Amino acid sequence: MKPYFAFQWHITDECDQRCQHCYIFSEDACKPIDAMSWEQMEEVFANCLDFCQVHGRSPYFYITGGDPILHPDFWRLLELMKSQEIPFTILGNPFHLTDEVCMRLKALGCEKYQLSLDGLRETHDWFRKPGSFDITLEKIQTIKRAGVRAVIMTTVSGTNIDEIPALIDTVVENGADVFAFSRYCPTSREKDVGIEPIRYRQLLADCDRKFKEYKAAGCKTCFNKKDHLWTLYEYETGDFQIPDCAKPGMIYGGCNCGNCHLTLLPNGDIYACRRVQNSKVANVFEDRLADVWACQMERYREYTKFEKCSKCELLAWCQGCPAVASGRDGNFYAADPQCWKEIKEGN
């Protein structure tokens, strides 16, 4: 079977929230981008399939926005993907989900629907929109009744880090199929995630203990250890070991940027990663994705440039989060601000 390649496709910036940490609206000069026309969407889709054919990959789409369901051709796009039997996940809001909508999503091939919870009720509603916390929890079951997997994603920052363990309990109690978190990426509004490295390691330890307790109790929620610093934590605790068969120079894990992921914006701009604000590499209406991947994306695969990670034995499996590092000073290869590992000179 061909390996999957992930396209995170922002089909519109239209959204009925204005989240405090949203990268669409946070940048000083940022303005929402008009949604693609149907003809443009067809062109992008064909470009993506051409890419996969050239590079021997199977396409997987993460359809998002804004809130993608607000695009006038949202359903038409899903029908196009269904006709090609291409799987996809929706990253969206809870406000327009009904049993009928979710059943239609399932019929068209939607595997997962991802919602966000960024703290307990007061904190989440401050981040996103009053009432959003309760309706998000409510819609977990709406999604599940249709046979779609309900995913809860949390953006961790100094504002909500103390609430994450209790939030895990809430997510489990409400029956989410998957829970994961990643860190807030600094923007022009602020240049710091607000978390000291040792505090972040403590969060991972607290969550790891809770994850293992739930697993032992037969909990059906899957805990996706999305942040790459989990690799460092598990290396220290013995849950991860460097394989004896590992080959020097090979990259086995860590950041997908430059590896198996591209982001497409509503105006056709191609980003190595949407969370890396300065990672635009081309435009899908002007460039062939297959060529962009081989040429312009090469600079995101220069692993020896990582200022700290290149000296670490875990380089091939971790690399931290370059988006968080880049958000602080614009340097993709800078040290991850929350990485607590000390690298001795000469390593």
UniProtKB/TrEMBL annotation:
Residue span(s) of domain Radical SAM core: 1-220
PROSITE patterns in UniProt: RADICAL_SAM (PS51918)
SUPFAM superfamilies: Radical SAM enzymes (SSF102114)
CDD domains referenced in this protein's UniProt entry, alphabetically: Radical_SAM
Pfam families: Radical_SAM, SPASM
Cofactor: [4Fe-4S] cluster
Keyword ATP-binding: no
UniProt keywords, alphabetically: 4Fe-4S, Iron, Iron-sulfur, Metal-binding, S-adenosyl-L-methionine
Highest taxon of source: Bacteria
GO MF annotations in UniProt: 4 iron, 4 sulfur cluster binding; catalytic activity; metal ion binding
PANTHER family for this protein: PQQA PEPTIDE CYCLASE, RADICAL SAM DOMAIN PROTEIN
UniProt-recorded name of the protein: Radical SAM/SPASM domain protein, ACGX system
Biological classification of the source: Bacteria, Bacillati, Bacillota, Clostridia, Eubacteriales
